[in-house]
Amino acid sequence: MNETRLIIAASETDANLYYATRFLAPDPFVYLEINGRKRLLMSDLEVDRATSQATVDEVVSITHLLTAARRRGVANPTMVDAVDEALKPHRVTRLVVPGTFPLMLADDLRRHGYEVAPTAEPFFESRVLKSEQEIAAITATQRATEAGTQVLVNMIREAEIRGDELWLRGRPLTSEVLRKLLHLTLLGMECIAQRSIIAGGEQACDPHQIGTGVLKAHQPIVLDIFPQSAATRYFADMSRTVVKGRPSPRVQKMYAAVRQGQEIAFRMLKPGVNGRDVHQAILDSFEQEGFKTGEFGGRMQGFFHGTGHGVGLEIHEPPRVSATSDVLQTGMVVTVEPGLYYLGAGGVRLEDMVVITETGCRNLTTFPKVLELD
Q: Are 116 and 95 in contact (CB under 8 A)?
């Protein structure tokens, strides 16, 4: 017997709901999957649009269900009462919901006599295996990402060095200026980017520090760009590290080690491989090159994040290529993003996206890897 699945959310912010329905709405609505048949319970505002746009089997007016509940004697019926009305003819007693399902709604369903079973991601197993259409959508977002990154690289390359700072057209070149330019560029390609990382020097030792202030010469600048297509809703993710000026020998060695770490992953990634083994191989390579990972001087330094993660309708989704066990399968799209971070040197990170194929992996990223910008 098929499980009965329930999602109550707004599809503009819930990737599982959008994946199941391909229907965008800013307000919460109900998705029910009963014996493999998909139903939406929609407000009068959205019922016609959902009928014409959603990839489901049936769209039901929630008003009709609330009216039926009133006829049964429910004084002030709620969305949960509407769900109860929809489920009664099917004699459903157990509901499988995402782990993010609202607690108050879950409690109300239990008061109505339902067993509510939260499920960890992936809620839909098929989401981790991307179709050719999904891979094409991710690739298209990646091309926009590369175009935006090229604008940043061009600006940094054009900058002049004054003392230890980068200046462009008579003004200090800051992370904020570049981020604004990047986001406007991506918006022109129907991609929305938030909190893009443009972090120079030791700021990049915190891998999620977005970067602030004037960028410095001779120091690594980490560019980590991860926009979402406004048209398809699919993300892309790419990182590059550049230096305007002369990088230190230590930074040069870090960069070479990170590139080598990527190549290790590219060779290892294929169906049946555990992402944990790929991650460990990169850690071992870094250790052999003299780059240890641990807490030094009160800060984590070295390589202290995962090698990669799934990309799709969310920027971070299963699987993981990290210390966590996750076996890779054909059709998965994952990042490969080893990095090294040391106080006194700065951060170096390189990130590409690959799709797991039947025989290995195929890189979806075409942007060059160049450390020194002349």
A: yes
pTM over 0.90: yes
CB of 140 within 8 A of CB of 229? yes
Whether 243 contacts 218, CB under 8 Å: yes
Domain with CATH 3.40.350.10 in the chain: 5-123
Tell me how many degrees the CA angle 192-193-196 measures, rounded to the nearest 5. Answer: 175
Is residue 368 helix, strand or coil? Answer: coil
5-123 has which CATH code? 3.40.350.10
Helices (DSSP H) in the chain: which residue ranges? 15-21, 47-53, 62-71, 79-87, 103-111, 132-158, 175-187, 249-268, 275-288
d(CA 320, CA 276): 8
**Beta-strand relationship, 58-61 and 94-98:** unpaired
Tens digits of residue pLDDT in 193-214: 999 999 999 999 999 999 999 9
Can you name the residues that pair with 29 across neighbouring β-strands? 9
Superfamily of domain 130-373: Creatinase/methionine aminopeptidase superfamily (3.90.230.10)
In the predicted structure, residue 69 carries a pLDDT above the cut 90: yes
Percent of the chain whose pLDDT exceeds 90: 99
